[in-house]
Queue: 2 jobs
Job 1
Amino acid sequence: MNSSTALEHEVLDRVADDYEAAHTITADIARDLKRAVSEAEVRQALLALARGGQVQAYVYDTGAQRYRTVSPVEAEAEKEPWFMSIKGSNP
């Protein structure tokens, strides 16, 4: 298994049950993979998973006090997108 696949698998596991953003899971992923992992790497993995249809991207709408879905392209433009797995896509 190459490191990007291992990273994407680890990222997908982290977003299985809750909304997560790159900054909320990077340290735990680095610890579990036993190697340095940057927030940018995690963000790219999340975006790749979103483009692949395995996770849904969100932004937090403070006015409505809820997450709202956005496309992967919109998530790329956001400063702090959040993600959650699409149920049934996590093996």
Job 2
Amino acid sequence: MFDLEIHVPVAGELTWIPLLAEVTEEQVALIERTCLWELRCVPCAGATRSSATGPSATAAGPRPTQEIDVWLSYPRQNQMHPWGLIARGVTPDEVPTWRDHAVRRLSLQPPV
């Protein structure tokens, strides 16, 4: 099992922040396929997962082949909670890996 960290811009600087906890090698490969930012695996530290990943927007009707975008809530900056697009092309079958292992708030929604 691994924990994943993502290298994203926080307050103008690229910073490593926790992304997902307790993922398998297969799940790491899945995340790497769709992620837009650099990732690194670290040995599983038993991190506590986020109790809430934020809203997951869904289309009005079922679209089983529709791909999903993943947005990450970055650390708070100047009383604001910025969000950034971190992954594209996530299939509905892959959504649980992102949602169930999240350490930070994520929003999973159809692309605009």
